[in-house]
Amino acid sequence: MKHIFQKEVEILHHVEVRPGYFRMGLAFPELAQIARPGQFVMVKVPGQESPLLRRPFSVHNRLTDGNQVSGFELLYKVVGEGTSAMSEMVAGDAIDILGPLGNGFSNAEDTQNVFIVAGGIGVASLYYLVLDLAEKGVVKPTVFLGGCSVNDILCKEDLEALGAEVRITTEDCSLGEEGFVTLLVEKALESDKKPDMIYACGPQAMLKKLSAIAASFNVPCQISLETVMACGFGVCLGCAVEKADSGGGYLHTCTDGPVFDSRKVMIES
């Protein structure tokens, strides 16, 4: 039985890390102690009437005070009413959190070589995965960061501090190589040692292309889907994703995911 918590918690810090991108620290140790990379929480700004429903956000990082877990962080992009209201909050304010929810990333004990692929704000869940892998002694994961411009490239220095090799692409060539991040991954699969696993989060089109690339090189791939969720519990059925097997049917991002084996779901682009 999974433990799920719901309460209003204090905002410890809240900073704009890039124009339109924010990192929020929350005092919620009991949730942070059990949340796994790839899981998410549902958030509501107290007193905010619109949007009516909670919004999902990946657990981005675990906060510690000495040897004690003190809370966790969210990394988000302002895209609508809910995130706009969140961006105006300050340290000391209270925010309503429900979680942890969903199923996160998994890795075998012998996993030593991994590719991690983030498109824009997709790095929000993947940073926590890199932290987890670093603590388990995985040898130097290779992280691929992609975005439209340099403004969309997040966490580069933080990832390097964890021992990751970071490779970057931007569509306007304002940082790193020019083009889509999937092309950079494909080049690496052709020239580097084949990884034990690819982990990814980002736009649907990126995940669809990456899943095809992983299949062509026979590399297992876990993808975290970014879909609209209204409840987080599989009740509203609004986050259904079609199964890839011949039997058909659907899975639900909030309860069966958000992390899936890329071979088991149909990804809409």
Task: Explain how this protein is built.
- The mean pLDDT is 91.
- The chain has 269 residues and is of the alpha/beta class.
- It has a seven-stranded antiparallel beta sheet with strand order 4-3-7-1-2-6-5.
- It has six helices and 16 strands.
- Helix 5 packs parallel to helix 6.
- A hairpin with a 7-residue loop joins strand 14 and strand 15 (250-252).
- The longest helix has 13 residues, at 123-135.
- The chain folds into two domains: 5-101, Elongation Factor Tu (Ef-tu), domain 3 (Beta Barrel); 114-223, Nucleotide-binding domain of ferredoxin-NADP reductase (FNR) module (Rossmann fold).
Q: What is this entry, summarized?
A:
By secondary structure, the chain is of the alpha/beta class. It has six helices and 16 strands.
How would you describe this structure in keywords?
269 residues, alpha/beta, Elongation Factor Tu (Ef-tu), domain 3, seven-stranded mixed sheet, globular
Domain count: 2
CATH topology grouping of the largest domain:
Rossmann fold
CATH architecture of the largest domain: 3-Layer(aba) Sandwich
Strand content bin: 25-35%
Count of DSSP strands: 16
Secondary-structure element string: EEHEEEEHEEHEHEEHEHEEEE
Any idea of the CATH class of the largest domain? Alpha Beta
Q: What structural class do the secondary elements suggest?
A: alpha/beta
Mean pLDDT: 91
Major sheet strand order: 4-3-7-1-2-6-5
How do the strands and helices of this protein lay out in sequence?
Elements: E1 5-18, E2 21-26, H1 29-32, E3 40-44, E4 55-58, E5 61-65, E6 68-77, H2 81-87, E7 94-101, E8 114-119, H3 123-135, E9 142-147, H4 156-161, E10 165-170, E11 177-178, H5 181-191, E12 197-201, H6 204-216, E13 221-224, E14 240-242, E15 250-252, E16 259-261
Parallel strand pairs: 8-9, 8-12, 9-10, 10-11, 12-13
Antiparallel strand pairs: 1-2, 1-7, 2-6, 3-4, 3-7, 5-6, 13-16, 14-15
